[in-house]
Amino acid sequence: MKVWGKVFGFLFGFMLSKNLFGALLGMWLGHRFDQGSGFDFDGLAKQTDEDRQSNFFYSTFAAMGFIAKANGQVSQHEIAFATAYMNKLGLNGEMKQQAQDAFREGKMAGFPLEEHLKKFKRSCLNRQDLLLLFLEIQIQVAFADGDLDSAEREALHRIAKILGFSSYQLDQLLEMIIAGANFHQGSKGTASPNQIDNAYKVLGVEKSSSEKDIKKAYRKLMAQHHPDKLVAKGLPPEMMEVAKQKTQDIQSAYEMINAVKK
Hints:
Elements: H1 4-17, H2 20-35, H3 41-46, H4 49-68, H5 76-88, H6 93-106, H7 113-123, H8 128-142, H9 150-163, H10 167-185, H11 193-203, H12 211-224, H13 227-233, H14 240-261
Helix pairs in contact: 1-2, 4-6, 4-7, 4-8, 4-9, 5-6, 8-9, 10-11, 11-14, 12-14, 13-14
């Protein structure tokens, strides 16, 4: 039985009106919230850290499957990327089978993407850093073959919208992730013009940005992708390597920009 809507409605109603009538009105509205499609506070209260990590793990590979099938068929590049991704995470045995099952479900016709991602978002308690990393992973999948077709882009926009990201935020993130992939694959320590351009894009800043703004962007990205903090919030330990790699690229990009500016 859902009761949290009534509880919070009563308290907020009383706080705002300072009388019993306002409290009762708030409780009635809260009751309507409980009976509708409101937030499932009872369900969230029962969730453990392990439940949240499992939900993140399943959602990641199910969404991968959905994006892979977005253009009508799953390419060999996408299958190879998903398999390589599982290997990169060190998945084997039962965990690898769970990932494969989730990927298979995600690419099935009629997969309830919106319903599942809304549940996933609630499970994450709307933590933006977790949702951001999730979306970054999906962009990497969509760009696995070095190209992003209209169907994959549409699927990403749909996922981003469900998770609460705007089209502008997604487009900005796309540029950062693609630049990050190029930066990671480039020659380490070689400050070529392309590498420097990618380094700025990895941090989401312009060449004309001040040192203060660059440092601010760097610190924000490092905080958003801190592996230990993300695991504590619901990132599966098996996926900590994703966050570690991201922070390494952010660090390298920042160091390259600083070296060039001196």
